[in-house]
User: Which sequence fits this backbone?
């Protein structure tokens, strides 16, 4: 009998077909999100779960999984999975670090340039039939990245890749990380000072209880007038209602790829503001990177179902939890 594997997202046939050869693949009955109850029923006999960010994997859901050995997510972030509950249950959680570093760092730079050089706003302006006068000396003036002081919050691989790119632009770079980590070509500062002194703040820290609202109302208020907040990490890193206040009063600017609620509701007030560039969580969205993420996630899934060590494991301590805890 083939092991059972549950998939919580649509996958192209060339990925799904080989999975179906190896496993009895369970999936949701329609395109709509599954309720926790239905997922729980499906999970009761499944050994592997392949998922992505859009479906939270809660403790109650994990508790209903009697045979689950591995949760493999097609993402580096694991904040949609109750990691502690998985570890308690002896379930390995696989993720995809490394392969999306460059794509995500590129997108952070794209947002910085998009906001500072008003790219999206200019595109909307020209499509609105506003360009009637040829070249104008004061048209859509922006600010220069080469003249900016950029504060990088979080020095994991993506934060470090952003620092490297900023050096190429000639920006002055300030950095902060939860644990001290000197970076060549960048100045270490305390977190509040980073917000107070930077023309651009870019967030590259994982979402945890400690980092939720790291861009708090108080820190946003410390940012200089016309400063820019970039978020390609996770929505809840930012106090979104405080950011909305700062953007509505036109004091700050922002480039956001991630939001408190995704998809962004179509009546969200951000959508009416010109001083924020909005993207639909596409930091890792290049064909090559998505391919690499899926390959890594499948490797994790296969290893976990086979009872082998999951190569990219977000909760390695699971291997120290005794089998009797399951
Ligand atoms: C991740 O992998 O965590 C990104 O947010 C989606 O690619």
Assistant:
């Amino acid at each position: 009998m083939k092991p059972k594997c549950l998939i919580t997202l649509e996958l192209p046939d060339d990925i799904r077909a080989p999975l179906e050869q190896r496993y009895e693949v369970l999936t949701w009955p329609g395109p709509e999100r599954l309720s926790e109850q239905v997922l729980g029923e499906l999970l009761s006999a499944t050994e592997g779960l392949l998922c992505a960010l859009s479906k939270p994997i809660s403790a109650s859901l994990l508790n209903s999984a009697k045979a689950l050995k591995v949760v493999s997510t097609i993402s580096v972030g694991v904040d949609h999975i109750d990691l502690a509950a998985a570890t308690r249950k002896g379930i390995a959680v696989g993720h995809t670090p490394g392969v999306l570093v460059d794509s995500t760092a590129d997108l952070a730079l794209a947002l910085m340039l998009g906001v500072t050089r008003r790219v999206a706003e200019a595109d909307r302006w020209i499509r609105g039939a506003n360009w009637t006068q040829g070249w104008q000396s004061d048209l859509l003036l922006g600010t220069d990245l080469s003249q900016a002081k950029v504060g990088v919050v979080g020095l994991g691989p993506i934060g470090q890749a952003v620092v490297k790119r900023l050096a190429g632009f000639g920006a002055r770079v300030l950095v902060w990380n939860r644990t001290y980590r000197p970076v060549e070509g960048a100045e270490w500062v305390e977190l509040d000072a980073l917000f107070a002194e930077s023309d651009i703040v870019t967030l590259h820290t994982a979402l945890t209880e400690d980092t939720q609202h790291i861009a708090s109302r108080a820190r946003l208020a410390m940012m200089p007038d016309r400063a820019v907040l970039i978020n390609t990490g996770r929505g809840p890193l930012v106090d979104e209602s405080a950011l909305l206040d700062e953007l509505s009063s036109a004091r700050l600017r922002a480039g956001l790829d991630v939001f408190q609620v995704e998809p962004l509701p179509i009546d969200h007030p951000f959508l009416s503001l010109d001083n924020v560039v909005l993207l639909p969580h596409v930091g890792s969205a290049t064909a090559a990177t998505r391919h690499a993420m899926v390959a890594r996630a499948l490797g994790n899934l296969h290893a976990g179902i086979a009872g082998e060590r999951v190569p990219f494991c977000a909760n390695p301590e699971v291997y120290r939890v005794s089998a009797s805890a399951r």
In short: Residues 287-305 form the longest helix (19 residues).
